[in-house]
Amino acid sequence: MHGELSLILARAGALDGEARMQLERVSSELEAHLQTCARLLLLAQLDGGVLDRQLRSEDVDLVMLMRELIELVTPLAEEKAIRVERLHMGAPARRVHCCKALLVEALFNLLDNAIRYTPGGGRIDVAVLRRERHVIVAVSDTGPGVPAQERRLIFQRFYRGALGTKGAGTGLGLTIARGIARAHGGDVRLCSPSGRGATFQVRLPVA
Ligand SMILES: Nc1ncnc2c1ncn2[C@@H]1O[C@H](COP(=O)(O)OP(=O)(O)O)[C@@H](O)[C@H]1O
Ligand SMILES: [Mg+2]
Asked: Ligand 1: does its nearest atom lie under 6 Å from the Cβ of 113?
């Protein structure tokens, strides 16, 4: 259905401005609903342990993965004149056993939040570190951070903070990111103090 809509839009030169705008609205609403459905399904699958077999099935270098993800989100960041900096991302490799697609989902959610909740002109730092038996991916931003009273709530499903409710979203991003990390024997934590930019850390057992 979404594909067909895109096709119609691509050929919509012949449509008048009003009709075109309506189609574009329908298309972006549909996109948002599809994303919500996909997230609800993923959450249910994580809860049900359905994905357990594919966890740890791949050997992934987190430095390489973060380089790929930064490439992917750079256009989004550039729209807001946000710089994305890579820290501690040279050799050596920092490998984990994981399901790559799930890890991409978790890490993308953190980058997406950092871009979404950082005002234009800000900066995001991404670091990949080895700490004893774990690999840590840290995503820090220069946005307003998470208020003290919201720190424990933001990982709950459907919770959206004062910042979140201003834009599109479902309040499932952090729940999913943490669910995926925990399914891999790791975790996601908010590490920054309140009100001074946000730093989220994903911790995963080293391969
Ligand atoms: N980088 C960040 N800086 C400040 N607040 C954040 C950041 N990331 C998440 N939050 C807060 O946590 C809430 C929950 O995030 P999330 O689960 O991704 O849901 P959503 O982004 O759909 O609101 C957001 O609504 C926002 O209030
Ligand atoms: Mg989010």
From this structure: yes
Half-sphere exposure of 48 (CA within 13 A, CB side): 8
Tell me the C-alpha distance between 35 and 43, whole Å. Answer: 12
CA 95 to chain centre: 20
Pairing of strands 199-205, 134-141: antiparallel
Residue/partner pairs of 184-187 with CB below 8 Å, 24 or more apart = 184/55, 184/56, 184/96, 184/97, 184/98, 184/99, 184/102, 184/103, 186/134
What does pTM read for this prediction? 0.91
For the stretch 114-172, pLDDT in tens is 999 999 999 999 999 999 899 999 999 999 999 999 999 999 999 999 887 878 889 99
Q: Which ligand 1 atom is the nearest neighbour of the CA of 172?
A: 17
173 lines ligand 1 (CB under 6 A): yes
Whole-angstrom distance, CA of residue 94 vs CA of residue 132: 12
Cβ contacts of 40 within 8 Å, gap of 6 or more: 172
Separation between Cα atoms, residue 20 and residue 170, nearest integer Å: 27
The closest residue, in CA terms, to atom 27 on ligand 1 is 161
Atom 11 (ligand 1) nearest CA: 161
